[in-house]
What does this fold into?
Amino acid sequence: MPAGGGDHEYQAGTLRRTARWAERCKEAHGRWDQALFGIVQGGLFPDLRRESLERTLAIGFDGYAVGGLSVGESRGEMLETLAGVAPRLPSEKPRYFMGIGDPVGILQVIGLGVDMFDCVLPTRLARHGAALTAAGRLNLRNARFRRDLGTLDPECGCETCMGYSRAYLAHLVREDEILGHRLITLHNVYFMTDLCRQARQAISEGNYGEWSRAWISRYKGERASAEPA
It folds into this structure.
């Protein structure tokens, strides 16, 4: 997968190679119990994205992915490029954004029509002692958590938040106890899963745009006072 900022000639070569691989992969695919996804490439170039989109749709897949984004370009460039691709993908097929995992980013790409995404961010943050909360990201290595007996995230109902204080989690992180990383991982994955549950509910109620804007505004506002990771 080339970086989003690569030059036009390089991006053109990689997307055409991807298209050839896609054709061969579709011909070789024989598993009825596996979904095969085609990947739209093209970097930040609208003409290449259109070419890749048309070639990928012409082959026909069980689902479609948007690749080559969230790899170093600005968030604005990423969203602008995605906005030119996602709405043109078949709405009856799953649409997958490769490699985004922060809460705000996930809500933004859902708003542009993305159904699926993946990222190591929740577990990677946990390995470094950082927790995702409704009040922003918390760095449990910070000294202010040493005597904080409060819940990691008062709005969360996960096993970690129901049974362990910030002070205890901070102690585990400082001592590099594997239990600390595991408990924060459980929380971060639960947090992201619940965020997606809320997003689905907002979509079903027909107010996703309003809900997501309010959630992002609150998260960004409260994150300014939360401890950066």
